[in-house]
Each structure stands twice: as structure tokens, then as C-alpha cells.
Amino acid sequence: MKHRIEAVVTDIEGTTTPIAFVHDVLFPFARQRLAEFCRAQANDPAVAAALAQARDLAAQPDLDNARTVELLLNWMSEDRKAGPLKTLQGLIWKSGYEVGVLQGQIYPDAAEELRRWQARGLPLYVYSSGSEEAQRLIFGYSDKGDLRPLFRGYFDTRVGAKVEEGSYRAIADAIRIDPAAILFLTDHAGEVAASLAAGYQVVRLDRSLPLEHFEADAASAVAGSFSVVETQLSPGA
What we know:
This protein is of the alpha/beta class. The protein has two domains: 140 residues, HAD superfamily/HAD-like (Rossmann fold, 3-Layer(aba) Sandwich); 77 residues, Transcription Termination Factor Rho, Rna-binding Domain, Chain A, Domain 1, CATH 1.10.720. The chain has a seven-stranded mixed sheet, with helices on both faces. 35% of the residues are buried.
């Protein structure tokens, strides 16, 4: 690393967690249950509010609940990052985690190094396109135990889109750490570019590479695992 690291911000999908878990487990789980969940929980204030927000966002205030669910299912097919959809997905996932049907998947090297960094006193944060609630669920009900105590805070797209430089500046402002002293870990090239533009130190995780792979250039680096990132941290980071 070019400078001492004072905080680590990590992405989830493809970074701490296999992409397949999100796309092949979480998304289908929510999709299959969305209609019935909205029918059964129609009077729940959080569900009613999310459905109303979806109608407002679509500028279709006259939709009934059934047609609003159809709208939400279309948004899921489009992988649209819409707040009310994320809210409902999170509520459905919560029910699945709580009864043990779902369990968050975390790469072993990620869990090991996150624990190591937290024990060292390095502040850890999460920034994901999934809602803050969804982030807490995946780490709280993980196959590596409850990892929530490792993190000092969570950020989602309410702080800004993940491919926009301003989002990373907003996070740095929120945690009161100079961007140059923040290490961001992600698998996404667009997020690499945006966080670099904001002044972060950045490592792109490529899970197709050997765990020990590490390659750096003048701007950023590519690593095969969190474990090899650990070997690159400044002494005492």
C-alpha cells in the first residue's frame, strides 16, 4: 500500500461473498416469495410503505398491490437498484435467515482477515448496493458466524451510486478519514475507477485467480484473496 491504512471499506458481492450466492440463492428466494409475502403482510406498515414508494417511483399511483408486485418483479428482472424493492427483498430475506433457510456465504480468507484487521484495531466498513439491512443479514447469519461486530458501519446506495466518485468522498466524510488512508476492496472495475478518483487506495479482488496472486500498478492492484492483501498492508496498519 502507498500510505498507511487507517480504515478498510469492503464490497460484498464477488468480494467477501460468492456472486452465485447473491444471484442464484438470494434473488430467486425473494422473487419466488414476493407476491405471497406482499399479500400476507399487506397491512404491515413497512410493506405498505414500500409498495406505495414503488408506485410513486413508477409514477403509477393507481396501481393495486397485485399490479405493484408485477412492477417489482419486472424491476427484479432488470436488476434495478430501487429502494422499495430492496426494502421488500430485505424483509423476505430476514424471514429466511431467521428460520435457518438462508445462511450467508463468506469466503474463508475474507472472514479470517476481517477478524484479524478488527482485532488489530483497524476500522472496517461495508459499502454495497444491497440495503444496509441486507448487509447486516448476510454477515450476521453467515456460515462463518456472526460477523456484524467486526464492522463499525454500513453504507448502501443512499450515499450514492457505487460508480460515482462523490459516493466515496461522502463515505470518507462520514467516517472522518482522509480518502488516501482508506483501502477499498471490490471486484468491480467501475467501482475501482470511482474510488480511485476519490483518492482511495484500491484493490480489485478477482476470485478466478490463485489465492496468492497480487499484481500492482501505479494506481491500484489486483488480488486473488484477502490473505494476500494482508501481506501488502503497511507495517502497523
